[in-house]
Amino acid sequence: MNDLAPSLLCITEAEARQHQAAYAYTLDEGPLSDWPKFFTDPCLYRITTRVNEERKMPLSIMLCDNQAMLYDRVEAVEKANVFEPHFYRHILSDSRVLSSQDDSLVLETSFICVRSMLDGRMDLFTAGKYVDHMVKHDGRCLFKSKTVVLDHSRIDTLIAIPL
Length: 163
What we know:
By secondary structure, the chain is of the alpha+beta class. The protein has helices at 6-9, 13-29, 50-54, 67-80; strands at residues 39-49, 62-64, 86-92, 96-101, 104-117, 122-137, 140-150. The termini are far apart.
């Protein structure tokens, strides 16, 4: 039996949407080292394509199943990868609840991500949707799983960044 008060276990749509917005803000503004803190441990973070999802193919472009793997992605972006300085901006739709229980919500949120270079060039980096299973843990809303479903299969080499 769980000793937490029911209000600490229930997750509201408003809390889930706030968590989603804070997640995108952290990806855009940093610090990137905070990204794994949005997930439970263990967790599931997966990037795939619409075609793979429609065909029920388990192929992933990126797959992390715990926070250590998420922190590894952060380290790869911050220390190992070398690339021209740039910034990202995520634009989110409102979230649609796919299912809910007292202690969790499954939501779908469309997104686009724009990449801006220091010289002023901008391009649409990617577009797709998030399918998120959110739970409340220790009074905090967290992603138990986040599946990033890209609308395309043309993958940029900088996909090491979280989306």
